[in-house]
Design goal:
Blueprint: H1 14-62
Length: 63
């Protein structure tokens, strides 16, 4: 029988539940880090778009 399960009732042992909880926390942390990175990239892209719009407006006024 799998060592992660109790011999008596087939339910996950406290160790396997703890391991799953730890893995879930690690995945949550990674998801948060990725979300922050995507937000930073999105903010930079908005900045580039604003800069491009500003440059286009200036060029339209000059020429």
């Amino acid at each position: 029988m799998n060592s992660q399960f109790s011999r008596f009732n087939g339910k996950p042992s406290a160790i396997s539940v703890s391991r799953i909880s730890y893995q879930h926390s690690a995945i949550s942390y990674q998801h948060s880090a990725i979300s922050i990175q995507l937000s930073a990239i999105s903010y930079q892209l908005m900045g580039y778009h604003r800069l491009e719009a500003c440059a286009t407006t200036l060029l339209d006024r000059c020429f």
